[in-house]
Amino acid sequence: MRNTVLAPPPPPLYSTYFDARTVRCIHHHHEQHHTHSQCDAHHHNNDDCTVTTRCDDPAATGSKRRKLSVVPENSQECPGGGNRINSFAKFSGTFPRRSCLPAGRTLVMLLLVVLSVVLPVVNCDGGAGHGVAGANNGGYVEIPCCSHQFRRKEHVHEFSCGRLFYRSFHLDEGRDALYVGAMDRLFKVNLRNISETDCEKNSMKLDPTSVSMCVSRGKSENFECRNHIRVIQPMSDNRLYVCGTNAHNPKDWVIYGNLTHLQRQEHVPGIGSGVGRCPFDPNDNNTAVWVDEGNPGGFAGLYSGTVAEFTKADTVIFRGDLYNITTKRREYPFKRTIKYDSKWLDKPNFVGSYDVGEYVLFFFRETAVEYINCGKNIYSRVARVCKEDTGGKNLLTQNWATYLKARLNCSIPGEFPFYFNEIQSVYKIPGDDTKFYAVFTTSMNGLMGSAICTFTFDDIQKAFLGRFKEQATSSSAWLPVLTSKVPEPRPGQCVNESQSLPDNVLTFMQSHPLMDEAVSHEHQKPVFYKRDLIFTHLVVHKVTPDTRSPLSSTYTVYYAGSMEGRVYKVVQWLDGDGLSHSQLLDVYEVTTPEPITAINISPKHNSLYVASDNRLRQVDLLLCNGRYDNCLRCSQDPYCGWDKDAGTCRPYQPGLLQDVTGLTPGVCDASIGKKKMIVTWGQSVHLGCAVKLPRPITLKDVTWHHYSKEKGKYQIRYRADKYIETNEHGLVVLSVTEQDAGRYDCKVGGNIVCSYNITVDAHRCAAPSRSNDYQKVYSDWCHEFEKYKMAMKSWERKQAQCLNRSNISAQTSHANDIYQSPNRFL
C-alpha cells in the first residue's frame, strides 16, 4: 500500500496559480471539507454556481464565496496571541484596482493587501481552490487521517491464497464458476464475487509426485519442482480435463466440475501421462483445446501445442490417442508435427488454439525459417489441421497429413510498414467463429511497442488456399511455388480418409507446410497501437447499448492486459463507409506492478477477471459513476450515458446522453453548468478545468475561448502578462478589466467541458476611511493566523500518525488505485 501524505492545512495566503484538489465550502456560516463534486452537490442542485468576490467584511453572509488571507513570511508575536507583520518576502493573490489604495500610507497598503486577497479560484464543478481560510465559525475541518486507505469499492473484488502463480483460467458461466490453475492447486472461484471463495473448501490439491528427481536435475524445489496446473478444459458429463507440470514430469487428470476425483470404475483410458499435452517447465507457454466432435470415429480428444521434452528440444502440435470410451480400446493413434523439423515448427511459443468447424487452429510465434538467410527474426503464425486427419499410409504415418501454417501480419501500413511481429495473446468471442482478436508486440530487445489486430476466419482460409512457399536449396531465397508443381488433390485440404492420399501429396506436405501469403489484418491497420508498452493478454466484448432499437450500433470493446499490471480499455466502431475507428477510453491499474498472467470476461456478470502471480481481481465492467466525472468522457463509453438532470454518469439506458463515435458535436454542451463569477476590477482570476484522466491518457487539444461584446468570439492565446495556463489546463486571467467580462469556455477536442460567465464590477471596492477600520482588519488577521498555526500543529501530529499506519499496512496490503485512490482515478 502506498504511503499517504495528507495535505497540510492551508496558510492564509495561497498562490493564484494552483489547481486545487480539496476545497472548503463556506455557505451561510457553515463550513465543511468536500471533494469537488461533493462541494458542488452540497451547496446547490442547479447547474449555475454564483461566486462573489468581496472587498468588505469577510464575515458577511450571502453569496457563496472563497476567501484567501495573507501569511507573512517573517512575523512576530502580536499582543493577545496574534502575529505582528515585519515584512512580506513573497506573496501572491488578487489585488484591488489602484484607485482603492490611499497614497503614502504603508500600513494601509499592507492591510488592504490583507483585505484584497479574495481570489475566486473555481474548478469545473464549482469547487474552490484548496487552502481557503476558515470562516467566522473559526475552525479548520480536516479529512480523517488515512481514511481512504481502508475504503473498498463494491466494483472490485479480490481473491488470493498466497503466491501460487495463478496462470490458467477456464470460465464456466453455466455453473457460475471460474476454474483457476495455480501451483499445486485447482480453484473453483465464485464467478459472482470471487471474494466469497474459500481457499480450502473451493480447491483441489494436486501435489507433485517426483520432486526429488526434479531437484536432482537442477531445478528449484519451491517453484519449478511443483505442480503448476496449465490446462483446464471442459469435457462432457460435467467433467474437466486437467494437466499440470508435476515437477517436470507432466501429468493429467479427469475430474468432476465440483473438484472431486472420478470413481475407480470411471477411469478414462489414456489419462495419466501429460507429456505432449502440457509443458515440463511452468514458465513455458502452451495451449490446448478439448474437441468432442469431428474427430475420427467421433471420439473426443485433446489437441495441444507445447514442449514435449525435458530439454525443450522437441516442440509439438499434438493430438493424443483416441479411445472408445465404452470398450476402453484405442481406436486411433496419436498425431503430431514432425520432430526436429524447423520447417514445421522452430522454437514456437503457443498462445491459443480453437475448434472451428472441421479444423483446429493454433496461434503461436516462432523463429522465421524463411528469414534465416538474412538473420534471425520472429514471426507470428496461424496453423491449421483437419480434425479428421489420421495421417498418411506410407508417409507421415504418425504425423499430420493436413498441417499448414501462414504468417500473421499486424503492422502499421505505409510504403515501409512497421511490423509487430510477436503475437502474445489471442481471443475468440464464444459462439462467434468468424473473427480472432490478438495482441502483438515488437521485439523485447528493441524499441518496445504493442498493437491490437483482428483477423477474420475468411482471410485465414484465403491464405491457406493461396500459393505455397519453398526454398530450393539451403542458400536460396524462399519463393512461391509454381501452381504447376502443386499436386492434386490440393495438399492441406480436409478429406474423409487422409490415409488414402497419394504419396506425392504427402511428400509435398512434408516439405511445404508454409504458405506464401500472410494473413492480413482486418481493415488493413491495427485497431490500436502504442509505444513503450507490452500487452500480454486480451479479451473482447461486443456491446450494443440499446438492444431494443434495430438501429443501435454495436461496438467492440477490447481489454488488453499489460506487463505493468494495467488493463487498457479500447472501443472500436465502423462509420457509415465501413471504415474502422477506435479510441482509448480508460486504463485500470489492476495488478500493478505485477504483470497480468491471465484474463477473462463474463458478459453475464459484467465482470473482468484478472490474475497475477499473487492474486485474482474482479472488476465491474459498468464503471460509469465510479470512473467518469464529466459528460465528455462518460458519453464516449458504450456502457455508459450521462444523466444531465442528475449531473452523473450511469449505465446506459435510453434517454441518457451518449456519443461514442463523436459525430454529435456539442452533445454535452447542455449539461455543462455555467458558473457565474463577479470579480473586482484589477483582480486576477483562476478558471479551473481539471478533467480527470488515468495516468497513461493525456489531454490533447485543450483550448480556452472567450466570448465578449467588445471582442466577439476568439480563442485565447497564452501570454505571460495576461493569460497563463496551469498544469491542469486551467486558465489564469491577470488584472481583469471590463474588456475581460463575458463567457469563458474550456474545450477538449472541440467539446465544452467547463464554462464560466464573468462579470467585472469596477465600483465595488472602496478605500477604508477611518483608522478603526484598519485596526479591526489587522486584529482579525492576527486572530486568523493564530488559528492557522494551531491547525498546522494538529496536521503535523496527524500526518505522523498516518505515516505510521501506512508503514504497518504496507507489510500486508498492496496498492490498487481502482478502489484505494481517494478520487478513484489513476
Account of the protein in words:
Residues 665-759 form the Ig-like domain. It is found in: Secreted. Pfam families: Sema (PF01403). The protein has 826 residues and is mainly β. The protein folds into 2 domains: 23-150 and 672-809, Immunoglobulins (Immunoglobulin-like, Sandwich), CATH 2.60.40; 160-535, YVTN repeat-like/Quinoprotein amine dehydrogenase (Methylamine Dehydrogenase, Chain H, 7 Propeller), CATH 2.130.10.10. Helix content is 11%, strand content 32%. The strands form 15 sheets. The protein has a 6-stranded mixed beta sheet, with no helix packed on it. It has a 5-stranded mixed beta sheet with strand order 21-22-23-24-32. Helix 2 (106-116) crosses helix 7 (771-809). It is elongated and about 115 Å long.
Q: What proportion of the residues is helical, as a percent range?
A: 10-25%
Estimate the mean pLDDT confidence: 80
Query: Could you give a short account of the major beta sheet?
Result: 6 strands, mixed
Low-confidence stretches: 1-152, 812-826
Enumerate how many helices there are, as a single number.
8
Number of strands: 50
The fraction of residues assigned to DSSP E strands is: 25-35%
Under CATH, the topology of the largest domain is which? Methylamine Dehydrogenase, Chain H
Globally, the shape reads elongated
- Domain unit count: 2
Keywords: Developmental protein, Differentiation, Disulfide bond, Glycoprotein, Neurogenesis, Secreted, Signal
Protein name: Semaphorin-2A
Organism: Hirondellea gigas
Main location: secreted
